[in-house]
Amino acid sequence: MDFGEFQEGQTVLVQLEKSRLLGEFQRYDPRMKAIHLGNVKDFNTMKYHTRAVAIPQRDILTIHSFSSSSGECKKIKETSNKSIVSIESEKSVILTEEQVQDVQMTICNFEYIMQIDKRYFQAVNEMKDQAMVCGKIAVDVIGGRKGRFAKGSLLILGIPRKIFLVDLMSIGCIPDELKDILVARKPQKIIHDSCALNDYFHSLGITLADVSDTWVAHTSATQTTKHIGVNECVAQHLKLPMTTMTQQEEISFTKRPLDLEQCALAAKQVAFLHHLNDHLQEILLKTYYEACKTYQNGISQHDDPTYVAVRMGSKDFQEWLRKF
């Protein structure tokens, strides 16, 4: 395998079987068949991991490199026999290193709300303030994906640089202040696969207003109706390695107290929704504006009066002939 694609000092994200490491690529040792990284952080916690580390090639599942200028993502994929590695280079709009680190820090700095107190009202005010600034909020409910038959355990609300985890089991319901945010025209609610979740909210007397569904955007952008979860969608469009929440992990959210790892897992469900929504809308708007331009030039690019007559109608054609 040719590691010449990577430059010394370039930031790379290495996916291992049980961890993800973010560090600076230093060199590849062909004799030991290992890559050397420096200034390594744990990608999940963004905490300092070690000054330098050598990672055997056989342990690497994927590697992503970040390029803030060209937007090029180079991805090393492991084959089935785990001995041969091939490299793919694909042009794609991916997040910069700074954006990814910001999201990871947001995941680590979530705010857990389990009662109606001063912290709760501060969180509500912060969400309302953000509604006036960015106009969007990411929404999900752990345990709410079975619609009206579900019993949600955790309401997740994400604004840029802040994620709020509202413990519905401890509070007992969705408070009125949060209901007001959900039913208001602003902020726009970003949800992945909103159908079942909307049924859950509807059973509680909450009608969501102004929803941007990233799964619907995905189906429009890719022309496929195959269902994929939010983490798969992030992996496909933002080119970031993500793990899907298992059914067992979701069941564990019905028990209290929640540990830090569970809270971080919940925060991940909405952490990248803002970036994913922006990226998918950019794809859809590009197609829309291209269609607008094609339609705009539909007549002006033709010199044939007959073609123009058909497009404009016979009456306009007769008037055009008289003037001509």
Automatic annotation (TrEMBL):
Recorded coiled-coil stretches: none
GO aspect biological process, one term: piRNA processing
Nucleotide-binding is among the record's keywords: no
Domain of life: Eukaryota
Secreted among keywords: no
Key words, A-Z: Exonuclease, Hydrolase, Nuclease
Protein name: Putative deddy 3'-5' exonuclease protein
GO MF annotations, alphabetized: exonuclease activity; nucleic acid binding
CC terms in the record's Gene Ontology section: PET complex
